[in-house]
């Protein structure tokens, strides 16, 4: 009898606590964060219980991908229609919802530069799956003093390689009236070259095989997740 009374009492105490914690996590906290953002003049989509903007994101992506791609350089409406729609409706600094968490969208170049530079360490990175840290542990995942030290070390190499890259682009453009450049590949090469020179004292071409193997390892890790 005493055991039954004790179990009942525990249930009466624990159940309201669990309900209150759940209510706080899925409703009260998101609505409080929404009010704080709006109080700072940042507009965005209203919070929807649990799902946030997931349904709207899937809907817009599905609609964009159901249409034939246009042969133009205006790829944003197809690649990321949700973010484009959010910026057009709510401004260059706005927010949306990933489940119960607000996500800030920044289109202002100066603010983007400030966030990426992150000199004071005010902008923390989101939690990362431990599997991602196996093949990659660098500026993307480091925090605080470790990040600052790595950034200071790699900055000069980036500046030098950036100048070389621009000169190569100018040379290609001078050979003909116009030319197209795959900037994504060029930026990947720029990053790899800066890392090679900073870490190993070599160039991307010399360590090309290593970077190709690292890319395969990263792909396999993401597939395993």
Taken from the alpha-carbon principal axes, the silhouette is globular
Mean pLDDT comes to: 81
Name the beta content range: 5-15%
Helix fraction bin? 55-70%
The structure class reads mainly alpha
User: What is the H/E string?
Assistant: HEHHHEEHHHH
Radius of gyration: 24 Å
In the sheet with the most strands, the strands line up as 1-2-3
**Low-pLDDT residue intervals, each spanning 5 or more residues:** none
Describe what you observe in this structure.
With 225 residues, the protein is mainly alpha-helical. 61% of the residues lie in helices and 6% in strands. The chain has eight helices and three strands. A three-stranded mixed β-sheet has the order 1-2-3, sandwiched between helices. β2 and β3 form a beta hairpin. α6 (144-174) crosses α7 (183-199). The longest helix is centred in the N-terminal third of the chain and has 38 residues, at 2-39.
Provide a concise account of the structure shown.
The chain has 225 residues and is mainly alpha-helical. The protein has 8 helices and 3 strands; from the N terminus they run H-E-H-H-H-E-E-H-H-H-H. Helix 6 (144-174) packs across helix 7 (183-199).
Core attributes:
three-stranded mixed sheet, single chain, 225 residues
Topology:
Layout: H1 2-39, E1 43-44, H2 54-65, H3 76-79, H4 81-90, E2 93-98, E3 101-106, H5 109-117, H6 144-174, H7 183-199, H8 208-224
């Amino acid at each position: 009898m005493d055991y039954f009374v004790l179990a009942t009492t525990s249930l009466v105490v624990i159940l309201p606590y669990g309900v209150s914690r759940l209510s706080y996590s899925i409703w009260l906290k998101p609505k409080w964060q929404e009010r704080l953002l709006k109080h700072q003049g940042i507009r965005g989509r209203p919070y929807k219980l649990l799902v946030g903007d997931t349904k709207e994101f899937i809907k817009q992506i599905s609609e964009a991908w159901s249409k034939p791609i246009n042969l133009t350089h205006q790829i944003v409406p197809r690649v990321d229609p949700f973010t484009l729609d959010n910026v057009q409706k709510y401004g260059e600094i706005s927010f949306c919802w990933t489940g119960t968490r607000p996500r800030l969208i920044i289109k202002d170049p100066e603010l983007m530069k400030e966030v990426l530079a992150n000199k004071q360490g005010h902008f923390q990175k989101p939690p990362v799956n431990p599997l991602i840290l196996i093949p990659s542990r660098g500026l993307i995942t480091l925090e605080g003093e470790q990040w600052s030290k790595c950034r200071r070390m790699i900055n000069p190499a980036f500046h030098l390689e950036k100048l070389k890259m621009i000169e190569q682009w100018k040379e290609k453009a001078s050979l003909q009236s116009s030319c197209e450049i795959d900037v994504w590949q060029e930026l990947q090469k720029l990053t790899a070259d800066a890392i090679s020179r900073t870490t190993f004292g070599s160039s991307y071409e010399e360590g090309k095989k290593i970077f190709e193997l690292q890319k395969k390892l990263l792909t396999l890790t993401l597939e395993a997740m």
